[in-house]
């Protein structure tokens, strides 16, 4: 089996796996009455796509196994951590207000509307964004300096995201901070250390995958992820949700929107 045929086979199998993940998550969401469970499935779906790719590439004997399984491991670690973090954060809570607002005006059956425009859309995005990993598994050669640079970028992003999430969770767990804006630790340098970390993770994975010219054709994948984080459902929606809260305007004046920068000094009173 040629590398091209094996890659097409992998894309098809991965699409089926992602459909199964999203349909299962949809069934759970309907049973719980909470479609925000799809947020936890986002990271898990990337891990499933990467693992599927690793198995098919190994079975067909294509690509560089070292690069392939490093990509599988890094993607899975990122995805599982994100899924667990979101799952623990939403445990015991009701539907996310964002989904309530979105589905309140749904035409027809809200559940079927959610299946079409939330679950299946997210599954399609996972398939697209994971393409660099899939293509690399069947075309990339031995590890090089670009891959090493990508690994360092991935590590930077993973630390930013995981440390930022841990700092925010600890801040929210203190009743004394109720109603206050988190502006400490990494959150003093960027208003979105988790989204910035995500961006670094996926640009890092792209560089690790870039062991052949074929992978360069998948450049839209990290660009789409970057768009989602900054202009899609990430930074933009979060800032709209936070706008108007006491202290938010002051926080935005002294803190970088995305890229980490030293915080500006507070204005004197």
Brief description of this entry?
Helices cover 71% and strands 0% of the residues. The protein has 269 residues and is mostly helical.
Structure description:
With 269 residues, the chain is an all-alpha fold. 71% of the residues lie in helices and 0% in strands. Helix 1 runs antiparallel to helix 6 and helix 3 packs antiparallel against helix 6. The longest helix has 30 residues. The protein is globular and about 60 Å long. It starts with a helix and ends in a 15-residue tail after the last helix. The mean pLDDT is 90.
Tell me the total number of β-strands: 0
Total domain units? 1
Q: Give the overall form.
A: globular
- Helix/sheet category: mainly alpha
Q: List the helices and strands in order.
A: HHHHHHHHHHHH
Query: Radius of gyration in whole Å, from Cα?
Result: 20 Å
Give the amount of beta strand, in percent. Answer: under 5%
Number of helices: 12
Taking pLDDT < 50 over at least 5 consecutive residues as the criterion, the unreliable ranges are: none
The portion of residues assigned to helices is over 70%
What value does the average pLDDT take? 90
This entry's quaternary arrangement is single chain
C-alpha end-to-end distance: 72 Å
Q: Could you describe the largest sheet, including whether it forms a barrel?
A: none
